[in-house]
Amino acid sequence: MLRANDISGGACYFNQYWRMRTAYTILNSSTAIFYEASTIQHLDEFDEVFSLPNPEKNLHRINMVLNKLRDPNLITQVIDAMKIITCFENSLKSELLFRGYVIHKIDPNINNRQYANFAHSQVNAPVIITEIKRAEGLLRKKKNNYVFNSLLDRTIPFSYFLKKPSYQSAINLPPRIITALNRIYSKRNTLHWLEYPTASYGKPIIDEFKELRTYINTRVAKRRDLLAKKMSRH
């Protein structure tokens, strides 16, 4: 159950302003988290050394740059993976919210067939906010002193964006971003998500990070700035 007057709960579904405000807050923090990752901070240096001609002859220089990322316990790499995944998990959910979809899990155990059907559908495709409001008789509510009985206080899994085509198409998620995120997500809890055993392997990984950075600098940052302008008019 979510309360429509709770800014950390159901307020994001109350009206357009609160939806925009929540989406903006999430996008703003997501961008900051992304650029806290050491991999991203040193990305241009990595790109430069891995773009050298005959990289096999420049392994010493490559290792000098990579040493900026390494630490004895490989904690930096693991933390970087968590930051990048957290950034994209939040920003993709924000994009879904901005487009008018529910980002909280719909309760599959509540004793209501219509809610249960929504919960079943949500596993494979996003559910529109107005459908939930209509089912709960909330469409004409003018004040936010009500609750969403069908919604849980936890959000949908990030894996939906990586595995479910309907979620990907709902926010126009590019295939190359999906590929890069799947690789990081699948190895985020291991110590092998950022291995560079050879120069030929390192360049494709660097290119993946560049794709992610471009996405953040264009799609995410532009959406954040657009929301800021729209909110200033309210």
Summarize the structure.
This protein has 234 residues and is mainly α. Helices cover 60% and strands 5% of the residues.
What report would you give on this structure?
The chain is mainly alpha-helical and 234 residues long. It has one domain. It is 60% helix and 5% strand. The protein has helices at 16-36, 38-41, 43-50, 59-66, 75-98, 113-122, 129-135, 159-163, 165-170, 175-187, 199-232, and strands at residues 2-3, 104-106, 147-148, 151-155. The strands form two sheets. Strands 1-3 form a two-stranded antiparallel sheet. α10 crosses α11 (199-232). It is elongated, with a radius of gyration of 21 Å.
Q: What descriptive keywords fit this protein?
A:
single chain, 234 residues, mainly alpha, two-stranded antiparallel sheet, 11 helices
The helix/strand series, from N terminus to C terminus, equals: EHHHHHEHHEEHHHH
Number of helices: 11
The separation of the N and C termini measures 29 Å
Tally the beta strands.
4
Arithmetic mean pLDDT:
85
Looking at how many chains there are and whether they match, the oligomeric state comes to: single chain
Show the helix and strand layout.
Elements: E1 2-3, H1 16-36, H2 38-41, H3 43-50, H4 59-66, H5 75-98, E2 104-106, H6 113-122, H7 129-135, E3 147-148, E4 151-155, H8 159-163, H9 165-170, H10 175-187, H11 199-232
Antiparallel strand pairs: 1-3, 2-4
Helix pairs in contact: 1-5, 1-11, 3-4, 3-11, 5-10, 10-11
